[in-house]
Every structure is written in structure tokens, then in C-alpha cells.
């Protein structure tokens, strides 16, 4: 058995920030999960639907791995990313750093992992790997998936080789902190303003505040969008609240990030943004509950109410991000 020694294997709410926390604590940098999410400019929104999808998807964060890239750039971390089409080479890319005493981040399809409770394909899942033996790999996943867990080497190989939306080619990565890293406090304003600018100026209409407004209109049609509303609508709501989002489609995490920033920066714009994101978090949970009710009852009135809440959310988050974008002035 080969294990990284003296590793803090704490899980957290969201997969990518869980893995980042493990890798960075091993480098002597211990930041809260909301701070990791916020410094990585992780918050976003997308209304995703296409002909080959069974049902629309509401996403609340930036694309998989963008958060890691953003965080590494902000904190001056050396990010070494390896991808390959060769399963043999992919294993070598993981085993070598672990043999040298370093944990490794992996992006993979959670569907294949032995311990994973929900058997849904998701190629953007991220875990930290810290050991292996002849049969199993030892990983750190989110708290809801068990924290420090294990899966067979065979299922790990399947998960890493999987193709499909958001999947990567056996992606693995390590992080190395510089001897004198920049202060996380000094990176708060650039992280917040970059996130706000992207949210306020989306490239397409189903992203950012425009995407939330679009969702508010289209959610009203969801009973006609599915042959099985009792399955699909509660599942969509569950993904908003429970699927590694920290609740309220990542808005709880961003609210808590802004609250942590308020202890470090005195700013009226920051206070405004925090107050509005506290309101937004409550409204997202309300929207998810209404979507669940619509699926369970088959009554369109709940989707109409959810649509009204989402249109209000578009306004609230737009106001919040406008305030936060002024932090750089």
C-alpha cells in the first residue's frame, strides 16, 4: 500500500473545492471552502438544454476546472495538468506524485465510482487521490459522498476514461505553492470583480443574469417538456440543492465567501452584494421547492410561481453583481 502521509482528508460540500482544499492544505495553505470558491471566481449560471438531453439542466458555477485554473492564477500556484488517451500513461501520471508523497487531483465521471450514491453520468466530477494498493484507490470526495473513500482500481480506470459532456481525457493535476505566495486577502477584489463582470456580460443569452431570466420563462413549460414529471422535476430541484452545490445552487457558498470577505474589507459595495446574495440564496431554495411540488403534484401553478421567483432572482443577482463590480473603482 502506498499512501501520502500526514494528509488532512476533510471533505466539504462541493467536489472541486473539496479536492483543492486537500491539495492546498498539503502545501500548507488552509483556506475555507467558500474562500476557495470565491477566489476561484466560481459563481455563474447556465440554462442548458439540447435535443440530446432528456431534461434541462440549471448550472450555478463556471465550467469544470475553470475554478481550479482561476484559483491557481490568483494565488501564484504552479498548476501541472496532465491529460492522455493512454490508460497506462494515465496511471503513471497519478502514481508518480503519490509515490513521491503528493496527493493528486483527478477529473472523472462519478457514475463509475463504487461509493457514489447517485448513478448519474457526470464527467466534470473532481476528487483528490492520496493512495493506492493492489486493488483499490484511496480518494477524498465531498462530505455527502463519504469524505475519505475508496474505489477499485478497475472502476477508477473506467471513470477516468469515460467520454461525454464535460469529460476530460484522464485529467490529473497537482498544485505547488511558491515560497512567498501572494496574500489571499489581496486577491479578493480581483476575484470578485472578474466574477461580476462575467456574470453581467454573458456571451450568450442562457448564461449569467440573462440565463436566470430565460430560465424564469422556460421553467413554466417544464410539465410539457417531460413524459415523467414526478421523476424529472424533483431531480432537477435536487441537483440545485443537494448535488455538491452547498445548497441554493452555489449561492450559499458565495454568500458565505462574501461574509468572510467583510471581515477583511470594509466596503459598502461588498455589504450590498452580501445582503443581496443572502436574499438570492433563500430565493433559490424556494424555487427548488416549488419545482419539486410541481413534479409531485403535476400542477402548473407551482412552475408559474417558480418562474416568478427566477425572474426576481435575475434582478436580485444583477443588482448584487453591479454593486460588487464597483469594488475595483
Automatic annotation (TrEMBL):
InterPro entries membership: BtrH_N, DUF4872
Pfam families: BtrH_N, DUF4872
Domain DUF4872: 155-324
Domain Butirosin biosynthesis protein H N-terminal: 14-142
Superkingdom of this protein's organism: Bacteria
TM ranges: none
Name this protein carries in UniProt: Lantibiotic ABC transporter
Amino acid at each position: 500500500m502506498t499512501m501520502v502521509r500526514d494528509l488532512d482528508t476533510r471533505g466539504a460540500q462541493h467536489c472541486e473545492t473539496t479536492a483543492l482544499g486537500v491539495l492546498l492544505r498539503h502545501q500548507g495553505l488552509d483556506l475555507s471552502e467558500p474562500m476557495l470558491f470565491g477566489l476561484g471566481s466560481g459563481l455563474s449560471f447556465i440554462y442548458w438544454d439540447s435535443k440530446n438531453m432528456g431534461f434541462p439542466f440549471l448550472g450555478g458555477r463556471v465550467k469544470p476546472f475553470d475554478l481550479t485554473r482561476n484559483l491557481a492564477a490568483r494565488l501564484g500556484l504552479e498548476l501541472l495538468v496532465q491529460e492522455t488517451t493512454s490508460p497506462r500513461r494515465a496511471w503513471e501520471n497519478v502514481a508518480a506524485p503519490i509515490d513521491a508523497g503528493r496527493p493528486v487531483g483527478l477529473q472523472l465521471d462519478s457514475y463509475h465510482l463504487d461509493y457514489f450514491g447517485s448513478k448519474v453520468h457526470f464527467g466534470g466530477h473532481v476528487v483528490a487521490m492520496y493512495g493506492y494498493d493492489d486493488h483499490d484507490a484511496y480518494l477524498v470526495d465531498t462530505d455527502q459522498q463519504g469524505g475519505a473513500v475508496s474505489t477499485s482500481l478497475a472502476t477508477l480506470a473506467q471513470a477516468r476514461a469515460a467520454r461525454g459532456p464535460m469529460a476530460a481525457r484522464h485529467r490529473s493535476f497537482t498544485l505547488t505553492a511558491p515560497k512567498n505566495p501572494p496574500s489571499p486577502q489581496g486577491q479578493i477584489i480581483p476575484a470578485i470583480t472578474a466574477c461580476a463582470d462575467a456574470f453581467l456580460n454573458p456571451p450568450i443569452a442562457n448564461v449569467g443574469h440573462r440565463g436566470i431570466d430565460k430560465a424564469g420563462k422556460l421553467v413554466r413549460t417544464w410539465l410539457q417538456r417531460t413524459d415523467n414529471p414526478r421523476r424529472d422535476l424533483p431531480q432537477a430541484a435536487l441537483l440545485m440543492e443537494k448535488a455538491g452545490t452547498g445548497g441554493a445552487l452555489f449561492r450559499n457558498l458565495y454568500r458565505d465567501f462574501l461574509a468572510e470577505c467583510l471581515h477583511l474589507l470594509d466596503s459598502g459595495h461588498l455589504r450590498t452584494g452580501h445582503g443581496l446574495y443572502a436574499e438570492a440564496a433563500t430565493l433559490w431554495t424556494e424555487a427548488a421547492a416549488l419545482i419539486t411540488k410541481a413534479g409531485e403534484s403535476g400542477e402548473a401553478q407551482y412552475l408559474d410561481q417558480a418562474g416568478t421567483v427566477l425572474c426576481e432572482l435575475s434582478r436580485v443577482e444583477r443588482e448584487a453583481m453591479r454593486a460588487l463590480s464597483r469594488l475595483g473603482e
